[in-house]
# Entry
Amino acid sequence: MTKRFLSSGVCIAVLFCITGAGCTTVAPPPSLQLEEEAGSSRENSLQAQRPLEPEQTAGNTAVAQTEQQKAPDPLGASTVQTEQEQREAAVVQTEQQKASDPIGASTAQTKQEQRTELAAAQTEQEQREAAAAATGKNSFVVNDAAAFAQAIAALNSAETDGTYTITLTGSLTSEPLVFTGTATKTIILKGDENPRTIQNNGNGALFSVPKTITLVLDKNISLNGNRKDAALVAVDGGTFIMQAGSALYGAGKSAVSLHNRATFMMRGGEIKDNTAGSHGKGGGVFVADSAFTLEAGSISGNTEGISYGGGVFVTEGGTFTLQGGTIAANSAHEAGGGVYLESGTLTMEGGAINDNTASYGGGVSLDDGTFTMHGGTLNGNKGYRGGGVYLHNSAALLLAAGTISGNTASSSAFGGGGVYIHNQSSVMMAGGSISGNTAVSAGGGVYVDDRGTFTMEGGELSGNTAVSAGGGVYVAHKSGTLRKKSGTIDDTNAADAGKVVYISSSKQRNTTASPGVMLNSTIAGSSGGWE
# Structure
C-alpha cells in the first residue's frame, strides 16, 4: 500500500512539470511527507537491527535519556524538577537505610551525645582547674554558716601539712568549732575587701586550737562573742596570731584563753569590749603556762568585774612580752586594770599601758611575779593603791628604761602615784624615769610599805606630787627599806613634808639627791643622807 502511494506521487510531479508553461516546485501533499517519514523510520529500524559496539550502546542510551528529558521540557524546567526529585529520593533512601538499621543509627546518635558530654566535661574540668589556679588548692571562699562549717570539716579531714585559707564574703553566725587532725596546719581566716564578722552562737569557745594548729586572723575579720560565757579563741597548746585589721569583741569569758604552752602573737588588730565573766580573770587575754607577745594593735575597753586583770591576766608561769601596741582604758574590780600577774613574767620593751583603772595597780598589779621594764610607758592609770604599778607578795620590778608617768593613787590613807611596794616585794631602778605622778595621800612617785624594798641605782624621780608626805619617795614603816646608790631624786617633786623623800616620821629630805648622794633608810642622820 505504501509503495503504490509513493509511485503515484512521483508520476504526478513529473507530469506537472511537462504540461505546464514552466516547471514550478510544488510541495508534496501531506500524505507524501508521511511516507517519507515512514521511510526514514524504516531506515532507522534497519540500523537498530544491526549489532552495536558497547561504547556506542552506552552513549546512545545516555543520549536517548537526555533527549527524553529534554523533549517534554525544552526550556529546562524538567531538569530542575528532576534534581529536586533526586534529592527527595536520596532523603527517602537515607531514611529507609536508618529504618532498616536502627542499631547503627542509634549508635551514631549515641556517639554524638558522648562527644557532646565529653566536651562539656572538659569545659567543666577546665573551669575547675582555672578556679584552682586562681584560689589555690587549699583555699575556700564562703558566705554563709553552712559553707563555713563545710570548709572547717574539710580542713579537719586534710592529712597534709600546709597553709589553708578561708575567705569570708559575708558575715555569719556559727556554732563553736574545734580544729582537729594530726597534720601541722596554718589556717588563715580573713574577710574579702569588706569587713566580715563571725558571731558565736553556742556556749563554748568559738574556736578551739590544739597544738598542731596555727590560727591566723587576717584583715577584715572580726569575732563577736555575743556575750556568751565563753572565750572567743581557746588555744590549748596551739598558736594564735592576730594581724592588722582583725578584731575580737563581745566575749563573756576572756576574748583569748591560752593553756598548755600555747602561743599568742598579736601583730595588729583589736581586742576590745570583752569581760572576764564568771572566770573572774582576764577580760581581754588569759595566759596560763603559755606565752603572749604584743607587737602591735590594742587591748582596750575590757573589764573584769569580779577580780583581776581587766586587759591581761598571767598565771602558772606564763609570760607576757609587750613590744608595741597599747593596753588602754581597761578596768578591774580588784587589781591590775591593764595587766595582772598572779605568777609568771611581764617584759615591757615598748608600747604603752595607759588610762587603766583598778583598786590595786591601775596599770599593772603583780602578785608573786616579775616585771622587767626596758622601754615603753605607763601613763594616766588610776588605782586606790599604786596608780601605775602595785607589787604584792614577793613580786619584783626591774626598771631599766621606760617611763612611769602621769598616774594617780586615789587613797586618802595610802598612796603610791607611780609605784606601790608591799609585803616583801622589791623594785630595782637602774634607769628610766618615774615622773609626774600624784598621790592624794603619800608617796607621789614611790610608796614603800610592809617589808618592801626600793633600790635605786640609776634613773630619775621628778615632778611627782603627794598631798601629805614624800613627794618623790615615801617609806611607811621601819620595816620598809630605801637604798639609793645612784640616780637622781630632784626637788621638783612636791609634798607638805619631805618633798624629795620622807621616811616614816623620823627622816626626810627636801633638797635634790643627785647621783652622788647616798640615801639609806636604815641609817639615821646625815650619814643616811637626811637633813
Observations:
- Residues 102-135 form the longest helix (34 residues).
- The chain has six helices and 43 strands.
- The radius of gyration is 54 Å.
- The CA atoms of residues 161 and 184 lie 5 Å apart.
